[in-house]
Write a structure and sequence with these properties.
By secondary structure, this protein is of the alpha+beta class. It is about 45% helix and about 10% strand. The chain is built from 14 helices and five strands.
Length: about 280
């Protein structure tokens, strides 16, 4: 299979893999990354000069990855909109240039961020992978041509659907290492399996409506609700606050970051700030 090759400015697969917004996107080496999303395995090769090879067909690119990588947003314009007097955010955007808001699967994002409460990224990733291996479907890997390298693992699994995960008991879910969050996951399964919540219904809601619905889910608080809105629905006017962001806001903005300065893009700014603070030396 011939790879799909695209010229994409303001795009860094490695920085996206390390951005903290996604848990199944990994760096293989200096020029290769891989991810699993929407039941597909994808490897990306950085060819230099903003050119990238993707291990998929043009049809898959069109149907899945174009939207996943937020290709219709002008990230150059987003960065240009930053107030130059805000030296911290200016430096953060320069350091994190190439990060995009990934349009992740709604159901997977809901469960992943329920799991994320008071946990490190490696431990979240471990639980998500255990759930996928236990109840998901094994993914048939694409033919990888000369632009690509060997995957990090021999087997990859899709994140289980609502129906697939509904076969799990509370004890089963707990065994994946999610701790007390197993109860919240079981409640989410009930919400989606019963039809009380559906992905299409949630997508149709306004920001305020969506936030209120998510906040009414068992075990979902402000940070998790905002993360789900940003990373599953690309509601980029959301500004999730976790321990890292609280530290940044207190240290550099006197305890308050004015999100109104960046209507519709403050979530992207949050992503630059989070990545910068976690990864700069």
């Amino acid at each position: 299979m011939s790879p799909v090759i695209k010229h994409i400015p303001f795009f860094s697969p490695a920085r996206n893999a390390l951005s903290g917004q996604v848990f199944r996107f990994k760096v293989i080496d200096e020029t290769h990354t891989e991810l699993v999303a929407y039941g597909h395995y994808l490897q990306i090769a950085d060819l230099g000069e903003d050119r990238f090879a993707f291990s998929c067909t043009e049809e898959e690119w069109r149907d899945i990855w174009h939207r996943y990588f937020d290709m219709d947003r002008d990230y150059g314009a987003v960065i240009s909109s930053i107030d130059p007097s805000d030296t911290y955010l200016t430096e953060a955007a320069k350091f994190g240039c190439g990060i995009r808001i990934l349009h992740q699967d709604i159901w997977e994002t809901v469960i992943s961020y329920i799991i994320s409460q008071r946990r490190s990224i490696p431990s979240i990733t471990t639980s998500v992978e255990r759930i996928s291996r236990q109840w998901g479907q094994r993914i048939c890997l694409p033919e990888l041509g000369e632009d690509f390298v060997s995957p990090l693992c021999s087997e990859y699994y899709s994140f289980p659907s609502v129906d697939e995960l509904s076969s799990a008991s509370l004890a089963d879910i707990t065994s994946t290492g999610v701790g007390y969050r197993a109860e919240y996951i079981m409640s989410a399964i009930d919400d989606f399996r019963s039809g009380k919540l559906t992905c299409s219904m949630l997508e149709s809601k306004s920001d305020d409506e969506l936030y209120n619905i998510l906040m009414n889910m068992h075990g979902v608080g402000k940070k998790v609700a905002n993360c789900i809105m940003l990373y599953a629905f690309a509601r980029c006017g959301r500004f999730p606050i976790d321990v890292w962001m609280e530290r940044i806001v207190n240290k550099y903005y006197g305890g308050h970051f004015d999100v109104d300065r960046y209507p519709g893009t403050c979530g992207i700014m949050q992503q630059y700030m989070f990545y910068y603070e976690r990864n700069r030396k």
